[in-house]
Write a structure and sequence with these properties.
This protein is mainly beta. Helix content is 9%, strand content 49%. The protein has 2 domains: 330 residues, Outer membrane protein (Lipocalin, Beta Barrel), CATH 2.40.128; 193 residues, Porin, CATH 2.40.160.
């Protein structure tokens, strides 16, 4: 849980600083949204690691005075009149999908394949302006919106789905490192165009929005239709849908908005490469898709000034029609988004940098936050075949060039298939979390290069180290042999009714290392961070590890 919070905070804050303007240039970026969709955001008993298992999406909105090329063309295509706002955005995202069970090296050929898709794209929205009453949106509204998104990416191994899922399971969840990514769709170009039309009616505390459209592409092709009902206060924009359907809102706003929502969407799947493989590959692993696919979602939302938080619990119908483990299997996951939406009226009044430096509490003066991923460089534990390292830290200035903070570092070690005569294959997850001090002997908190040394300590009752060893049986069902001494037997886990053996040791954690930040774009806030760390979780001969990570570091500007 602690690691998940650190990583989520890193994603959100890094997104914020990505759009911070150059102080000597005109403001071109004017809002952002970060989406994270994962079963982590629902209770463990209803979530699952199969089907759609993770989605990340960053949307960077442009200032309406500096729209991306093509915005005016899209306005002419939809035939919009003069009472509209035209907005554009850059989008970056990754989605990946897995079969019902992720712990087998040999994947069931009758199950859906592993599939990852990483993409970049542009989005255009032509939105009818709100009716105003006394400088605020009127309580009765009818709005329409035409949206177009064009994405280009890579489907298959090049999308990096294996790396992301294995690292998250190794360090954040310390649970069930995936094994079958060799059984994934082949590398291919992914291109798509998504069109959505929305019509919204608002009457006081209630609004209802219908939407329709479709996607045409090499990854998925389908028409879609759906609707969303909301109850709340101050609702003045369109509801947040699931990640692939939503961008940054840019409207006149009430200062406070909150409420609950429920909605659904149906799609008729003409093509679904995440289930059946790339359409031009005869050798792709894949199974027969369901033609009809639907989502039901319920959630809540809150916005204070320009900052918005939205949550949806999503229930998705089965995607696989072929007989096998995934046939008829439904999927549950959570969709979380955090946004900064300055609104049309806010472009003149407040920039993203102003929001970070002026609106947020003064606690962020001297604050730092960093996150990265990499590999272990310490001597291998016998049998290790793959390692995954992640690192995150946050803190603030204590005195001059001395900082105090918190950090979490971890390594996941995969030991390969079970040895001959052994019924289990093994994984180990080592996590060290500590309160730390870091010092800049050369100064440079906001210079192009920023070098630091650091050390931290954590005990079992406060932060500390964790050494978890997981034994996964090769056979499904109840265990043929008992777990070794010192291990606990898990309850049978769906869908294979497999029982795992787990041993967790907790104790002292020591972390020390060095880091170098480079700010190549002249920004004092955002930089690339190279980190070398040594950690000992105090639980066995191979509990120390040395990792090298590459990531990002954010240090908000000091006043003046």
């Amino acid at each position: 849980m602690r690691g998940r919070i650190v990583v989520m905070a890193a994603i959100v804050t890094l997104a914020a600083t990505t759009v911070a303007p150059n102080p000597v240039a005109a403001q071109k970026w004017a809002g952002w949204s970060v989406y994270w969709e994962n079963d982590t955001w629902v209770p463990a008993k209803v979530g699952s690691d199969d089907a759609f298992t993770n989605g990340l999406r960053l949307v960077l909105g442009r200032d309406v005075r500096e729209n991306l090329p093509g915005a005016d063309l899209w306005r002419r295509v939809v035939g919009a009149g003069g009472n509209v706002d035209i907005t554009s955005a850059l989008v970056i995202g990754q989605n990946f999908f897995t079969p019902r069970s992720i712990t087998e090296y040999q994947v069931d050929p009758t199950d859906r394949p592993y599939a990852g898709f990483t993409y970049v794209g542009v989005r255009y929205d032509v939105t009818q302006r709100l009716e105003m009453d006394g400088g605020r949106p009127a309580p009765k509204q009818h709005q329409t919106q035409h949206s177009l998104e064009v994405d280009l990416g890579v489907l298959g191994q090049g999308a990096g789905g294996r790396r992301v899922q294995a690292a998250v399971h190794s360090v954040i969840t310390t649970h069930r490192i995936p094994k079958g990514w060799s059984h994934q769709v082949s590398n291919s170009l992914g291109a798509s165009a998504l069109y959505i039309y929305r019509s919204r009616w608002s009457r006081g505390l209630v609004d209802f929005t219908v939407h329709g459209g479709g996607m045409l592409g090499t990854t998925q092709t389908y028409p879609l239709a759906g609707g969303t009902l909301r109850f709340g206060k101050g609702m003045s924009g369109f509801p947040t849908l699931l990640a692939r359907n939503t961008a940054v809102e840019a409207q006149a706003r009430h200062p406070l908005e909150f409420g609950v929502q429920a909605g659904s969407e149906a799609r008729y799947m003409i093509l679904n490469s995440f289930v059946e493989g790339a359409p031009w590959s005869r050798f792709d692993p894949g199974v027969t898709r369901e033609r009809w696919l639907g989502d039901i979602r319920v959630g809540f939302f809150i916005r204070v000034q320009a900052a918005r938080f939205n949550y949806n619990f999503v229930r998705r119908s089965a995607e696989v029609a072929a007989p096998g483990p995934s046939q008829g299997a439904k999927d549950n996951y959570g969709s979380v988004s955090v946004s900064y939406e300055p609104g049309i009226n806010g472009f003149e009044r407040e920039s993203v940098a102003d929001f970070i430096e002026e609106t947020l509490p003064s606690w962020f003066r001297g604050f730092y936050l960093e996150a990265g991923a990499g590999a272990e460089v310490s001597p291998d534990e016998p049998g290790t075949v793959v390692t995954h390292v992640m690192h995150g830290a946050l803190g603030r200035r204590l005195w001059k060039d001395l900082d105090i903070g918190y950090e979490i570092s971890g390594v996941g070690r995969e030991f390969g298939p079970a040895a001959p005569g052994d019924s289990d294959h093994r994984d180990r997850m080592l996590i060290a979390s500590a309160a730390s001090l870091r010092y800049r002997p050369l100064g440079g908190r906001y210079r192009a290069f920023d070098f630091h040394v650091r050390a931290g300590l954590g005990d079992a009752w406060f932060l500390g180290g964790r050494n978890e060893t997981e034994l996964t049986p090769d056979a499904v069902g109840p265990r043929a042999t008992p777990c070794p001494t010192g291990f606990e037997t898990s309850a049978l886990e769906e869908p294979t009714d497999r029982a795992f053996c787990n041993r967790v040791e907790e104790g002292l954690a020591v972390i020390y290392g060095v880091g170098l930040t480079w700010r190549p774009l002249g920004s004092r806030e955002l930089g690339l961070n190279l980190d070398i760390l040594r950690a000992d979780v105090g639980a066995g001969a191979y509990s120390p590890f040395t990792g090298v990570t590459l990531g990002f570091r954010w240090t908000p500007n000091e006043p003046g």
